[in-house]
């Protein structure tokens, strides 16, 4: 009930200079008691002094009193008399606290006063809750000192008590605000925060009860937030109330976006439709304040109910404003956390769950199905040719297509199913609790594929897009999430291999092929580490002179168990896995190094021709890398020719053109390989800084028998001549082919007619036996 704060730093001023006034009052009271004990009523001076002293202490707003050693009041000022419910001094003289207050409260006071009398030590700055509340929570700061007669004997105590309720309320408010802000910072649940906020305000404003209502997401209704001391039935009745211009205090405050003070519920038209709801609870006043966001958007309402007809005073209005402000901070913090959580677990573009949320929830879904005899179907889905939409219509159209597709998939599944965007144009479907019947499962999945493939209109254009889908069923085709994902992924890639726009269900054969593929990939990595690659060189011959002017470097894999492996057996896997980049780098270095060695050995100054993969060509600063390799090897750039395919260049014409000009600036020659098999724009072709076109072997092999191939080949040669480019035909094997090419104006040939690809030593021997010149340089 009370605590001795005489050593508390907060009251150091009271115990030092600040106690001087209190001590003076105590001394004056002691002298008064001494004077009274001597009883000199006949002396008019003494009577006057007694009158003035009594007048002074009666004008002091603090409690001032003296008691004897038995706790009986000897004297008290008027405020002490009145606050104890008495009329005059004579009514309190001789009474004890046990006569005035409940026993447990009086016992606490008597214990403190007994200690002062027994020890002779004063007690300063006791904070205690007032026994007389005056309708509100009151606190007093009390000091008590021994009352001594002239001989120094303790004959009682003198006490002074000051009302510190306002200061205690301010302290409690500050502490409460700090606690509430800490709750916000720590992310405590919103309902827990609301409860603490309301209890704080209820403790500071007498005879009121608080309520917080939240505005629904559609902005039309108020939903129960917290009301720790309101009847639950009443809270249930107002939960979901529509806001409006005449919807009680809270509904109207949310509608208007401003405070609504209703002093008398039964006399205010705003409550006309709600009076019967509130009547059983005997509330008469309701003050409601909207809770705003920083942008002044209404988030909810903070309301105080009173059983008396009244309006809030200025201090109470400040408390209400503070409470509404803190509630707004807490709600916005929670909304921000919810948004962050949603963003962490959902795709920003489509709003679908992402891979992280899927992995959190899918294990539980599978566990729930275990032993039920039902299937969970996991499908990996990839949109076919989505990149073409992005490239032709732009990324905005691609994004819109993804959103439409996501909406269609969501509409095609049940609430218990999941649709997940993995990234790009890839999605995962999880269909829960399906019967173990293959036909039913496939029918459901085909319905989803059909929904995706339905025509859609984007930016005024009608589009259709198909998908490739791979399927694995729990538990037959995977007992864990990892197994299902891996198997469905394998099935999807199988669907792509079969021409896209189809559905494939996982089989053990797919797993065997995937395993074999992993082994080959591992072997390929080992081949790089163990330097198992080597180069063969095929001569390129000038048709006019019949002499070798260049050599194309062709990669071979010398496998320790399977012997020599041709590029067609491992280059596609290298392209798919990205290993083509380190392999291509090895080829470039080895070819340049061999060419430099031939030059140093006194052989003719040949050009070495190296094929470039799309992955290599897209590497950042690739032209600078080529220059670094040439400098490292010591080969002049004019002796290196890089062969680029049409499809490689046309994937990104502006980017390819920039890289080609960088290579041209270095001094490296460029050729277009397999010309005629890809798609080239003639307007783009004339801008390419290339020196040579290479006619693909597919046009040469049936010459001169095939009339169409003859026409195409002749056209390519004519086109190259008009563009100022040299032409080389590959795959030349017969004299008839050579004669046709020479007659058509072809500049150079390459093929078995002259020589198959040779190891470096054999190629060198061929050069030494052949009349070679450098006219082709």
From TrEMBL:
One annotated GO molecular function: cyclic-guanylate-specific phosphodiesterase activity
Domain named EAL: residues: 517-771
Gene3D superfamilies the record matches: 3.30.450.40, 3.30.70.270, EAL domain, PAS domain
Catalytic activity field: 3',3'-c-di-GMP + H2O = 5'-phosphoguanylyl(3'->5')guanosine + H(+)
Location of the GGDEF domain: 374-508
Full protein name: EAL domain-containing protein
Span of domain PAC: 124-176
One BP annotation, GO: cellular response to nitric oxide
Any single Pfam family the record assigns to this protein: GGDEF
PANTHER family: BIOFILM ARCHITECTURE MAINTENANCE PROTEIN MBAA (PTHR44757:SF2), DIGUANYLATE CYCLASE DGCP (PTHR44757)
């Amino acid at each position: 009930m009370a605590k001795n704060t005489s050593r508390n730093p907060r009251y150091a001023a009271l115990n030092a200079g600040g106690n001087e006034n209190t001590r003076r009052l105590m001394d004056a009271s002691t002298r008064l008691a001494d004077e009274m004990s001597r009883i000199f009523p006949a002396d008019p001076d003494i009577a006057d002094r007694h009158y003035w002293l009594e007048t002074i202490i009666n004008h002091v707003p603090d409690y001032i009193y003296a008691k004897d050693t038995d706790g009986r009041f000897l004297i008290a000022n008027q405020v002490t008399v009145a606050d104890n419910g008495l009329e005059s001094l004579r009514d309190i003289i001789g009474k004890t606290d046990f006569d005035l207050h409940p026993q447990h409260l009086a016992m606490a006071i008597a214990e403190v006063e007994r200690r002062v009398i027994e020890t002779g030590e004063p007690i300063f700055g006791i904070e205690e809750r007032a026994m007389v509340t005056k309708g509100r929570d009151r606190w007093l700061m009390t000091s008590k000192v021994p009352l001594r007669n002239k001989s120094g004997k303790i004959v009682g105590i003198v006490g002074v008590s000051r009302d510190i309720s306002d200061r205690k309320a301010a302290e409690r408010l500050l502490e409460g605000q700090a606690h509430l802000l800490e709750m916000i910072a720590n992310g405590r649940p919103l309902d827990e925060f609301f409860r603490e906020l309301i209890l704080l305000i209820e403790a500071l404003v007498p005879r009121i009860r608080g309520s917080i209502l939240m505005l629904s997401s559609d902005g039309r209704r108020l939903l129960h937030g917290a009301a720790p001391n309101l009847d639950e039935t009443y809270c249930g009745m107002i939960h979901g109330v529509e806001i409006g211009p005449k919807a009680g205090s809270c509904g109207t405050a949310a509608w208007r976006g401003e405070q609504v003070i209703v002093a008398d519920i039964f006399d205010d038209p705003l409550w006309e439709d709600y009076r019967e709801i509130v009547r059983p609870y005997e509330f008469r006043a309701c003050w409601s304040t909207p809770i705003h966001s920083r942008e002044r958007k209404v988030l909810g309402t903070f309301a105080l109910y009173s059983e008396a007809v009244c309006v809030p005073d200025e201090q109470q209005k400040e408390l209400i404003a503070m409470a509404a402000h803190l509630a707004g901070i807490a709600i916005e913090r929670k909304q921000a956390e919810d948004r962050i959580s949603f963003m962490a677990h959902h795709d920003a573009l489509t709003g679908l769950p992402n891979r992280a949320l899927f992995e959190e929830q899918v294990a539980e879904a599978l566990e729930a199905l275990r032993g039920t005899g039902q299937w969970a179907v996991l499908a990996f889905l990839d949109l076919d040719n989505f990149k073409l939409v992005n490239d032709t219509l732009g990324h905005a159209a691609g994004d819109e297509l993804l959103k439409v597709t996501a909406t269609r998939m969501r509409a095609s599944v049940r609430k218990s199913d999941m649709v997940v965007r993995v990234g790009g144009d890839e999605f995962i479907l999880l269909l829960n609790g399906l019967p173990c019947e293959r036909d039913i499962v496939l029918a459901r999945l085909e319905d989803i594929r059909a929904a995706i493939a339905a025509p859609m209109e984007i930016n005024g254009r009608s589009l259709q897009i198909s998908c490739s889908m791979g399927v694995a069923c729990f538990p037959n085709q995977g007992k864990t999430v990892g197994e299902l994902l891996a198997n469905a992924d394998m099935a999807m890639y199988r669907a792509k291999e079969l021409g896209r726009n189809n559905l494939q269900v996982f089989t053990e054969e797919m797993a065997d092929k995937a395993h074999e593929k992993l082994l080959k990939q591992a072997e390929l990595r080992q081949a790089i580490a163990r330097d198992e690659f080597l180069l063969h060189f095929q001569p390129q011959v000038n048709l006019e002179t019949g002499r070798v002017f260049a050599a194309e470097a062709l990669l071979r894999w010398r496998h320790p168990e399977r012997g020599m492996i041709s590029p067609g057996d491992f280059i596609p896997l290298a392209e798919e896995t990205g290993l083509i980049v380190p392999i291509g780098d090895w080829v470039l270095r080895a070819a340049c190094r061999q060419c430099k060695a031939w030059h140093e050995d006194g052989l003719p100054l040949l050009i070495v021709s190296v094929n470039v993969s799309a992955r290599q060509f897209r590497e950042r600063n690739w032209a600078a890398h080529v220059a670094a390799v040439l400098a490292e090897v010591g080969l002049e750039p004019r002796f290196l020719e890089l062969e680029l395919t049409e499809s490689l260049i046309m994937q990104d014409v502006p980017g390819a053109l920039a890289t080609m000009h960088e290579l041209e600036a270095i001094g490296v020659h460029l050729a277009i390989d397999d010309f005629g098999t890809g798609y080239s724009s003639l307007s783009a072709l004339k801008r390419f800084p290339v020196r040579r076109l290479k006619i693909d072997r597919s046009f040469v092999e049936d010459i001169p028998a095939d009339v169409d191939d003859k026409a195409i080949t002749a056209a390519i040669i004519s086109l190259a001549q008009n563009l100022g480019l040299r032409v080389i035909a590959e795959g030349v094997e017969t004299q008839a082919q050579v004669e046709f090419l020479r007659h058509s104006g072809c500049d150079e040939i390459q093929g078995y007619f002259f020589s198959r690809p040779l190891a470096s030593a054999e190629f060198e021997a061929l050069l030494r036996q052949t009349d070679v010149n450098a006219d082709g340089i």
